[in-house]
Each structure stands twice: as C-alpha cells, then as structure tokens.
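Recap from last week: sequence in, structure out.
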Amino acid sequence: MINRFQFIEDHHRAWGVKRLCHVLEVARSSFYKWRAGREARATRERADAALAERIRAVHTEWDGTYGRPRITAELREDGEHVNHKRVGRVMRKFGIAGLRLRKRQVTTVPEPSATPVPDLLDRDFTASAPNTKYVGSGSRRELPPPAPTEPCVTVSRYTALVTLSTRSDGQTASGRTSLGIAV
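Predicted structure tokens:
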C-alpha cells in the first residue's frame, strides 16, 4: 500500500503539490513536514533493523522461547537502552515471536447430550398476519426491510422491543419482550 504523501512526492511534478493535496484531502503543511522528516524516518528504519538483529540473536540464543519482556531484560543487561514497547513493535514488524506455553482457555463447552434447538420458522421471518410469529434475536445485526406490502417482524437493535407491522395498512402493533418471548 502506498502512502498518500509518497504518491504526492512521486507525482508532484506532473500535477503540482497543491492540486494533489486537495484531491487526496491532505494538508500541504503535513506533506512538507513528511518530506522534511524523510531522513529521520530512514535513520529510524536502520536503527530498527539493527535492533531486530540483536533481538534475533537473543531470541535464537534462548531457542526461540524468549518473548518481549525477557528479550528487553537481556538487552538491558548487555547495556542496550531500549524500551519494552519498542522491542515489541520491532518484534511484530520483523515476525519474531516467543514461545507461548499457555493453552487457549475454553470458556463454553456444549453439553454432548443436549439436543439442538429446532428451527420452527425455517429461517422465514415474514408473517402473514399480525400476532402470527414472534421472533427474538441475540445478535446485533439488522436485516434489510421486506417489501412494502409484506407484514414483517422487526427486532429492535439495542432494546428488547419487537414490533410487528403490517405495511399495507400502516397499522403497527408492538410489545416488550423478555429474551425474545413476547409478553
């Protein structure tokens, strides 16, 4: 992915800085500041590459088991003045990762003898008349509205309000629900 500032730098002779900044919605002062910091960015990239080599040496010395905190401590013992956040950033950038011994904790285990809940509506949520189908949702995803002449059941996005409306005559019936069951 190309940086917008780099694009302006590459094409400013043909189109001009002012026009490119306007089209890309970038302040010209930001572009010129980016251009002035080119040498500092290059220096930082070289320093990060050198730090990555030292990190990789410590990482391989300990058979790939050390992560960010231990590598930071090792570098500090060797006299390197480095922050743990920078070590973590460089490790992510260069694909260096420590060994993770902890297994993923499973928080939800389904009961093997439990029968699945049957789909009584066969995923058809349109109602032919009011008070025919009541539907509740545990998700926060909204579906597109049905055709203007179809009666429908609408589950509100953030509340437990279910509205059944027949769109042909515009009458609306609504009621509060408790866990998707109309009361």
